[in-house]
Amino acid sequence: MFQQTTSTIRGMVAIEQVELKREQEERERQRDRQQIELYKQKEQEQKERDREQMEIGRKNEDKDKKRSRQLENIIFFVRTAIGGGQIFSASYPLIKDTPIKWQPDFSLPLHPFTATIIWSLLFGLIFSLLILGILSLARKISPRILPLVRKILPR
Asked: CA dihedral in degrees (129, 130, 135, 140; nearest 10)?
């Protein structure tokens, strides 16, 4: 009977240990599930922050592009004004030497002031087209030449 009681007690202890192990495993699974949920939540929050940062970055980029365009326009107008002023200041003495007659007479030669402005504009246009051609040629050639230059001139 004593042996029977001890074996019963041992059986009950074993059952309790199994139940404790099951409870412990269940708690661990629950903790794992909670951690997984927390990780998912953090991942979602990180994605949202990344999206917000990307949106802010795009907005800043758009602002920079707009600012850059405005600056380019201002520079263009200032250059045009300076160029026009230079043409006029170079041609102005011709007005004093030969006054302009405001009634056009095509049988007479061009007034020196008018001729100077026309030649200035014509040479400016030709020079601009020449530079544009050189730049476009350099852009086409540069991808081929750049690797050669890097081989010859190491940093």
From this structure: 100
- 93, 134 in Cβ contact below 8 A? no
Place of tokens 């400016």: 124
- Spatial contact of 116 and 94, defined as CB atoms under 8 Å apart: yes
Helices (H), 98-111: none
pLDDT digits (tens, 9 = 90+) for 83-96: 777 777 777 676 66
Contact 87, 120 (CB under 8 A): yes
Q: What is the residue-wise DSSP string for 76-145?
A: HHHHHHHHHHHHHHHHHHHHHHSPPPSS--TTSPPPHHHHHHHHHHHHHHHHHHHHHHHHHHHHHHHHHH
| Six token digits for residue 26 | 């269940």
**pTM for this one?**
0.40
Q: How many whole angstroms separate alpha carbon 129 and alpha carbon 11? A: 101
Which tokens is 28 given? 């661990």
72: which 2 tokens? 């380019």
Q: Residue 28: phi, psi to the nearest 5?
A: -65, -45
Give the integer Cα–Cα distance in Å for 150 and 143.
11
SS3 74: helix
